[in-house]
User: What shape does this take?
Amino acid sequence: MIKGVNHIGIAVRDLETSLKLFRTIFADAPIHREHVEEQKVDIASLQVGSVLVELTAPTDESSPIAGFLAKRGEGIHHIAFETDEVNTELKRLSDAGLRLINEQAVPGAHEMLIAFLHPKSTNGVLMELCQPKKAEAGTSADKE
Assistant: This one.
């Protein structure tokens, strides 16, 4: 079951420049920084209420974020929805006819398992499903 919005991902070219801007906008919002090798990105997340604003910059030209920036420029990249069972949700949505980018969850930032739904099946919006790894133990879909 989808529980709510976890974060809004914003693709940026220069993390430090963008972080300076977003620090001005959100003042004293707590900031979390992380490198996610699997996605070839560096992130800086600002906690705004119960939602994270996740600034994401590519660390390599082969990163999906680099491709997004080349095609569309900086801006909103995705909206992430939290669930306790990401792989179960992927199966449910696939069975309902939605197109998946990830058939199974992969490691992401904030110690989450993540997977994306293809925007061609979600009205042009790239959607991410994310699951805290601590919830992983209770899901049989994540075990091999």
About this structure: The chain has three helices and eight strands. Residues 137-144 have pLDDT under 50 and may be disordered. The beta strands are 2-11, 31-36, 41-48, 51-58, 75-83, 106-108, 112-117, 127-132. The longest helix spans residues 15-26.
